[in-house]
Structure formats: structure tokens, C-alpha cells
From TrEMBL:
<keyword id="KW-0067">ATP-binding</keyword>
<dbReference type="Pfam" id="PF00005">
    <property type="entry name" value="ABC_tran"/>
</dbReference>
<dbReference type="InterPro" id="IPR027417">
    <property type="entry name" value="P-loop_NTPase"/>
</dbReference>
<dbReference type="InterPro" id="IPR017871">
    <property type="entry name" value="ABC_transporter-like_CS"/>
</dbReference>
<dbReference type="GO" id="GO:0005524">
    <property type="term" value="F:ATP binding"/>
</dbReference>
<keyword id="KW-0547">Nucleotide-binding</keyword>
<dbReference type="GO" id="GO:0016887">
    <property type="term" value="F:ATP hydrolysis activity"/>
</dbReference>
<protein>
    <submittedName>
        <fullName>ATP-binding cassette domain-containing protein</fullName>
    </submittedName>
</protein>
<dbReference type="InterPro" id="IPR012700">
    <property type="entry name" value="PhnK"/>
</dbReference>
<dbReference type="GO" id="GO:0019700">
    <property type="term" value="P:organic phosphonate catabolic process"/>
</dbReference>
<dbReference type="InterPro" id="IPR003593">
    <property type="entry name" value="AAA+_ATPase"/>
</dbReference>
<feature type="domain" description="ABC transporter">
    <location>
        <begin position="9"/>
        <end position="254"/>
    </location>
</feature>
<dbReference type="InterPro" id="IPR003439">
    <property type="entry name" value="ABC_transporter-like_ATP-bd"/>
</dbReference>
Amino acid sequence: MTPQIEPSLRAQDLDFAFGQRKVLHDVHLELYPGEVLAIVGESGSGKSTLLRLLHGDLRPSRGVVEADDGHGRRCDLAELRQQELRQLQRSRWALMTQNSRDSLRMQHSAGANIIERRLAQGERSYARLRAEAKDWLARVEIDPDRIDDTPQQFSGGMLQRLQLARVLISRPSILLLDEPTSGLDLSVQAAVLDLIRKLVQSSAMAVALVTHDLGVARLLAQRLIILQGGRVVEAGLVDQVLEDPQHPYSQLLVASVLTL
Ligand SMILES: Nc1ncnc2c1ncn2[C@@H]1O[C@H](COP(=O)(O)OP(=O)(O)OP(=O)(O)O)[C@@H](O)[C@H]1O
């Protein structure tokens, strides 16, 4: 990574606890424009919690999260007013959650869900918004004729792709993806991964990708961190970590994939 480029997102010395349960310990990471950082780890290791901290939905008990506000200015998420934070979350940053039903407006049409962030960015032409929504449905492999259906009429995999269209359409400067392709069948998964890869290549989007799947990490990400028990036990270039993991847990993880 070129040293003079400023990270879009930086987390330093992060601790987080749910009540008495300490979930993250001393996490440090940087996310640069135009790169994908994979966050890998066992179930319960704190990956989703880390994304919620990076998005500003949770406050760390110690440490700082700083992010680019989309205008080249760095801000400390803890110091933003609630309204400023919401505005940035709606227009400049995006979080795709593991449970699509938590993020989608289930009573509204698929089209309305997709254009919401474009409206927050100031787009007002109904014809343009509808055309964009149809285009994005097609890009995530959903029939554009389903634009007026509500998400309640969609399958689980379709909800996931609808959520992806909803966040990608706005080309956020910081994109946080929580297991975006888990549960999709292989051909759709390949199409979705290809779509994300092309968008990252054609923009300066900075992407943090939580995944269980080291294959997905290898396909999409340049760098990787591995979490165990809320601690970063390994960090480095994906190829390097996969070829020569240093920590015993990373060695186990990599070996388990290779022997499948
Ligand atoms: N709202 C909550 N209240 C209390 N504890 C929570 C809450 N959400 C998560 N936890 C706990 O925090 C820890 C980390 O959870 P998290 O969802 O971040 O893990 P994860 O690595 O994303 O897991 P998975 O891969 O299964 O999604 C777990 O022990 C979990 O039980």
C-alpha cells in the first residue's frame, strides 16, 4: 500500500463489551480507498460487532474509529452529532447486515428500498430512479419486473441481493459487508462477487468484508485479518496469510480449507 494515501477508515485500540462480556480486544485496522479487507474468524469472534463499531452503530468502550466523511475530511465517529452520523450512514457509508430483514423496509416495494439512498444523495427524477432501480435489480440477478413486489415476496437469497443493490447503488466511499454471499447458490454467488469486484475496481470504494469463506476472501480481498476471541491474531496480504499463516489458529483455518 502506498504510504502517502490516507486510509478511508481507521480503527485504533478498539475494545468493546456487551455488559460484562468483553467482545473485542485492542483491535487495530486501516481500510484504504479501492481495497477490500477481509475479516475472517470463527463464529462469535466479534466480526459483526466490529462492523457495527466501524459503521458508528456501537461506541467502543476504548479506542477510536476515524472515517473519511466523503469530502476528504477525517472525522472521529464518537464526536459526530447523531444527525451528522445518520446522514453519513445514509449517503456516504453503507453497512450490509447479515440479516436482511433488519435492514430492508419490508412493507415497501423492492424499488423503493433500492432508491432510498439515492434520494438521500439528492437524486429526484422519478424516471431516472426507477430506471436505476431496475438496472440494479438485474445486476444482482433479480428479474427487474419484480420492482413493485415487496421484500416479503422474496426468498432469503433474493433479500440478500436486494440489500446489496440497495447499498451498492449509492457507490458509498466506505462499504461494510457482513457475509454478503453466504447462502447464495454458487452461480449467483459468482455473479455477485464479480459485481462487487468490478465496482471496487472502477471506484475508490473501501470495503471491509466479513466472511467465513476463505475462498471468497481470496477472490475479493487484497488484505485479511483473522479474529479469534475478539482479538486480531493475524493480519497481512491475503496470499501471504494463506500461504504462510503464522498463528496456530490461522494455520488451522487455512489447513481446514485446503483439506476440504
Ligand atoms: N446484542 C448483543 N448482546 C449481547 N451479546 C451480544 C450481542 N450481539 C452479539 N453478542 C455477543 O458478542 C460476541 C460476538 O458476536 P458477533 O455477532 O460479533 O460474532 P461473529 O463473529 O459475527 O459471529 P457469526 O460468525 O456467528 O456471525 C458473541 O459472544 C455474541 O454472543
